[in-house]
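Supplementary material to the annual report.
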Amino acid sequence: MKLLTHNMLSSNIKGVTNGFPLGIEAEKVIERSVDMNPDFLKNMFSKIEWKPLVEASRIMGYSDLPEDVPDSSVLDSEEFLRKFHHALLEIHLEEGALVCPQTGRKFPVNKGIPNMLLHEDEV
Amino acid sequence: MKLKQLEGLLGSLEQFSHPKIELEQYPTGAHIASRMLFSAENSFGDISNKVVADFGCGCGTLGLAAALLGAEHVIGVDVDAESLEVASTNAEDLELDMEFVQCDVRNFGGRGQFIDTVVMNPPFGTRRKGADMDFLAVALKVASQAVYSLHKTSTRDYVKRTVMRDYNASSAEVICELRYDVPKLYKFHKKKEVDIEVDLWRFVPK
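Predicted assembly:
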């Protein structure tokens, strides 16, 4: 699971009012390089929740992103785009868990696939 | 990519080895899938450089078609672990990047405005009434640009009325009518193969 997916997913357990962002327990993290698409990154920048991305990438062992939401002028910087690209699309959570921020319920991640299935009493 | 080439690649994908009737698992044929994604891309520009989700992705046919046409990030959502395994093998075979989330689409928790386009071949609701409409309700909540979906032609008026009134759609348009070949997959199927008429819809959320 890439952090782009993590930045979208939330816990949808019944009664949970704010299921975003999910915590991460990382057991195995892998990196796979993919081509960079600057136009896509520029478009995604406005949709990304910055703090959760910084926090998630730090847990996954990558701490080169600026702590605070950068001004959109950084999008002209090739160096910034590379880091943003790497954090969003190249770091994968392969084994571990996602954690509901409100209830602490864990959603296991195996072979890169988060299992977000809910139990009967959570629907 | 040309339509024929897309159809050829999709035709090589592995499909359900033990389809589950309770989930209404029917493979999305290469013919339909290629036309669906080809028009989404070439008539509407809803695929390349976009974030695309495939709801009820099964073996991944629609999502992989989106990836082949240049979608930047593709997320397949399905409740069934076995299907996701096949889908992820299919992605590897084609050397495509596709993400998967195991989840009942009805309970999918995704931030709004994040996904551009949803593509789906939902269960038609013959086993569990209204299953296709449940999928549609969620799709129209999370998509910011468009939703492409297949529904039985016999439900056309109902689909149109419901999405406009209850699901926050600003437009609902049948792009084309297709014939869906249902091969003899399950024991209760008496005929060797039947065709059902389906509509390919494009919905735009508000």
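The radius of gyration of chain B is 15 Å.
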